[in-house]
Automatic annotation (TrEMBL):
It is a peripheral membrane protein. Residues 16-250 form the ABC transporter domain. CDD domains: ABC_HisP_GlnQ. It catalyses: a polar amino acid(out) + ATP + H2O = a polar amino acid(in) + ADP + phosphate + H(+). Its EC number is 7.4.2.1. It holds the Pfam family ABC_tran. It is found in: Cell membrane. InterPro entries: AAA+_ATPase (IPR003593), ABC_ATPase_HisP-typ (IPR030679), ABC_transporter-like_ATP-bd (IPR003439), ABC_transporter-like_CS (IPR017871), MetN_ABC_transporter-like (IPR050086), P-loop_NTPase (IPR027417). The keyword Cell membrane applies. This is ABC-type polar-amino-acid transporter. GO terms for cellular component: plasma membrane.
C-alpha cells in the first residue's frame, strides 16, 4: 500500500535546496549542475546506475563532501563551512550509511545516547530514556545492553537509524542503507524507513530498492552521469518514464 498521502508539501517549505551544484573528483565530473528541492515532510528517493553521483549528492547535503560550484541551502541558510555551525548542521541532518558505523566498544544504548549528551547537551538519564524509546520504535529494545558485534546486520542498521533519530534531525539521509545486508534483513530495515515516512520525516534515500521507491517516495529522482535526468512522482516515473536512460535502467533492473 503506498505510503505518501496527498501531494508532497509545496512552496515556501523547502528544507534542502541544491542550486547548480557541481563536484569533481580530479578529472571526474561527478555532479553536473544539479538542481533539487526537498520540502519538509517529503520523501525523495534517488536511484540510478552505479557511478551516477547518487551517494556524492547525498553526502554533499551534510557537507561530508564539499562542492566545487553552486550552492546548497538547508532550512533557509547556506551550508556552513566548518566549526560549530557545521557540527550543528550535522546534528540536524541525520545520516545512515551502508556500513553501520556503530562504536564497537560501546553498548547499543551507549551508541544511541552519546550524541544526545555530547552534541545536544542532554543529561544521561533523559538521553537514556529517549534512546530506549527509539530502540523500541525500530524494534530492537531487547538489544539495548548488547554490543554491536552481537547483533545481526539488520539489527545494527536499525540501531544506526535510532542513533540518527536521537538527535531529532530535521532531515534523514540514507545512503544505500540496505546494500550491505543479507536479503532476509533488507525488509526489516525498509519497514522502519516506511514507518518514518508515514510519520512525516523528511527523507532523502539513495537506494536500489525499487519497491521502496514505489511505495514510500513522493518524488523519484533518477540520476545518470552526474545529472538529474528525470524527476517525477513514483507512479509517473515507473509507469511512464520520459527519458531513454530511465527506460533502459528500469528495463534492466525490474526484469531481473
Amino acid at each position: 500500500m503506498p505510503v505518501p498521502e496527498g501531494p508532497a508539501p509545496e512552496g515556501g517549505d523547502a528544507l534542502v535546496v541544491l542550486s547548480r551544484v557541481d563536484k569533481h573528483f580530479g578529472s571526474l565530473h561527478v555532479l553536473r549542475a544539479v538542481d533539487l528541492t526537498v520540502h519538509r515532510g517529503e520523501v525523495v528517493v534517488v536511484i540510478g546506475p552505479s557511478g551516477s553521483g547518487k551517494s556524492t549528492l547525498c553526502r554533499a547535503i551534510n557537507r561530508l563532501e564539499t562542492i566545487d560550484g553552486g550552492e546548497i541551502r538547508f532550512d533557509g541558510r547556506p551550508l556552513p563551512a566548518e566549526g560549530r555551525e557545521l557540527a550543528r548542521l550535522r546534528a540536524d541532518v541525520g545520516m545512515v550509511f551502508q556500513s553501520f558505523d556503530l562504536f564497537a566498544h560501546k553498548t547499543v544504548l551507549d551508541n544511541v545516547t552519546l550524541g544526545q549528551i555530547k552534541v545536544r547537551g542532554k543529561d544521561r538519564k533523559s538521553a537514556g530514556a529517549r534512546a530506549r524509546e527509539l530502540l523500541g520504535r525500530v524494534g530492537v529494545a531487547a538489544q539495548a545492553d548488547k554490543y554491536p558485534a552481537q547483533l545481526s546486520g539488520g539489527q545494527q542498521q536499525r540501531v544506526a537509524i535510532a542513533r540518527a533519530l536521537a538527535m531529532d534531525p530535521k532531515v534523514m539521509l540514507f545512503d544505500e542503507p540496505t546494500s550491505a545486508l543479507d536479503p532476509e534483513m533488507i525488509n526489516e530495515v525498509l519497514e522502519v524507513m516506511r514507518h518514518l515516512a508515514r510519520d512525516g520525516m523528511t527523507m532523502v534515500v539513495v537506494t536500489h530498492e525499487m519497491g521502496f521507491a514505489r511505495s514510500a517516495a513522493h518524488q523519484v529522482v533518477f540520476m545518470a552521469d552526474g545529472r538529474i535526468v528525470e524527476q517525477a512522482a513514483p507512479e509517473d516515473f515507473f509507469g511512464n518514464p520520459r527519458s531513454d536512460r530511465a527506460r533502459d535502467f528500469l528495463s534492466k533492473i525490474l526484469h531481473h
